[in-house]
Amino acid sequence: MRNIIEFVKETRKELNNVSWPSWPELRGTTIVVIVAVFFFGFFLWAVDLVVGPAMRAVHHLMAR
Length: 64
Hints:
Strand content: under 5%
Number of helices: 2
Helix content: over 70%
Order of helices and strands: HH
Shape: elongated
Largest sheet: none
Distance between the termini: 70 Å
C-alpha cells in the first residue's frame, strides 16, 4: 500500500512539471488533426476506388 501512495505522490509532482498547452493551442492542434484525418481518409478512399477495380481486373486475368 505504501508503494501505491508513493507512486500517486510522485505522479502528482510530475504532473505539476508538465507544460500544458493553452486552449488556443489545443484547439489549433485538434483542428489540424481532424483535418488531417479527413484528408487521409478521403485520399485512401479515392485510392481504393481506383486500385480495387484494377486489382480485381488483374485477378480476373490471372485466373484465366
